[in-house]
Design a protein that fits this description.
The complex is a heterodimer of chains A (149) and B (161). Chain A contains three helices and five strands. Chain A has 149 residues and is an alpha+beta fold. Chain A has a five-stranded antiparallel β-sheet with strand order 2-1-5-4-3. Chain B has a single domain (4-158), classed as Trafficking protein particle complex subunit 3 (Muramoyl-pentapeptide Carboxypeptidase, domain 2, 2-Layer Sandwich), CATH 3.30.1380. Chain B contains four helices and four strands. Chain B is 48% helix and 17% strand. Chain B has helices spanning 2-21, 28-54, 64-80, 123-135, and strands at residues 86-89, 94-99, 140-148, 151-158. In chain B, helix 2 (28-54) packs across helix 4 (123-135). The chains are: A alpha+beta (149), B alpha+beta (161).
């Protein structure tokens, strides 16, 4: 059985909960609500899970919330020290993506958004350069295959 | 690595600050001209200082072309960590310096997006060139044009007295 791995979509939130960027590559089913509501739902869930985890952890917390998985997909999470939250939904074959998300932040967000004087921090990301670089980066990932499971 | 961005961030803020200062005027064109000349004058003074510093150990230049070559190679690489990619001249005082990956534009876009905003970020560098030339004894008029980011051209016209 050939293992097909793929990336479904990516969300980037700032520390206030505004969704700065959303892209999808292989999403078969939509949420059935408007994009705005979807972003609020996602952010709300992240906020709740983080607080839940830190309260209920039976041991001292190290990295905190990393990922959750269902029978069909896995959601990976990475939060930067500046409060930028990256969420990546992939299918189950993909191992821990923390490094990938960290790379997306440092080589794409910091390079093309923070260093772009015309991108206002806190507003949704308009830069075409960022979007195209992000797209090539995701497509080049070893676990991205165009034929989704 | 962090050193490169220090100047970039400062430059971004300078441009934003100059535009904010003049934003109260109603006339958009006049405001743009004022902002661009403010930035260019800043670059002029910086360019004058930088060229003194960079040429303190150099022998005198033979002619204008030599000066331009110095600008394209040593001056540009010390400031922007790369040389000018192409220098053209009509041998009558006009030079065109082409930089295919201008350091202050690479993060903005790699095509047409943000094209109207690009001149704001070139004004300071035009002043740099003009200041450098002025302190080497050459009065000039420097303009910049950009049609496809991050490549841009600086046109230098030497003023013969």
């Amino acid at each position: 059985m050939i293992e097909r791995m793929t990336v479904h979509n990516l969300y980037i939130f700032d520390r206030n909960g505004s969704c700065l960027h959303y892209s999808e590559w292989n999403r078969k089913k939509q949420a059935g609500i408007s994009k705005e509501e979807e972003f609020k739902l996602m952010y709300g869930m992240l906020f709740s899970i983080r607080s839940f985890i830190s309260k209920m952890s039976p041991l001292d917390m190290k990295d905190g919330f990393l990922a959750f998985q269902t029978s069909r997909y896995k959601l990976h999470y990475y939060e930067t020290p500046t409060g930028i939250k990256l969420v990546l939904n992939t299918d189950l074959g993909v191992p821990n993506c923390r490094d990938t998300l960290q790379q997306i932040y440092s080589t794409l967000y910091v390079e093309y958004i923070v260093r772009n004087p015309l991108c206002v921090l806190g507003e949704s990301l308009q830069s075409d350069l960022f979007s195209s670089k992000l797209d090539s980066f995701i497509r080049a990932l070893p676990f991205f295959s165009v034929r989704a499971a | 690595m962090a050193d490169d961005v220090l100047f970039e961030f400062l430059h971004m803020e300078i441009v934003a600050h100059v535009y904010k200062e003049h934003a109260t005027r109603e006339d958009i064109d006049k405001e743009r001209v004022t902002c661009v000349s403010t930035l260019e004058l800043m670059g002029f003074r910086v360019g004058q200082g930088l060229i003194e510093r960079f040429t303190k150990d150099c022998p005198t230049f033979k002619d204008d072309l030599d000066v331009m070559k110095f600008l394209c190679k040593d001056f540009w690489s010390t400031i922007f960590r790369k040389q000018i990619d192409n220098l053209r001249t009509n041998h009558q005082g006009t030079y065109v310096l082409q930089d295919n990956k201008f350091a202050l534009l690479t993060q903005l876009s790699s095509g047409k997006q943000y094209l109207e905003e690009a001149p704001k970020y070139l004004a300071f560098s035009c002043g740099l060139i003009r200041g450098a030339l002025s302190n080497l004894g050459l009065e000039s008029v420097v303009t910049a044009e950009v049609s496809l980011m991050p490549s841009c051209k600086f046109q230098v016209v030497i003023q013969k007295l």
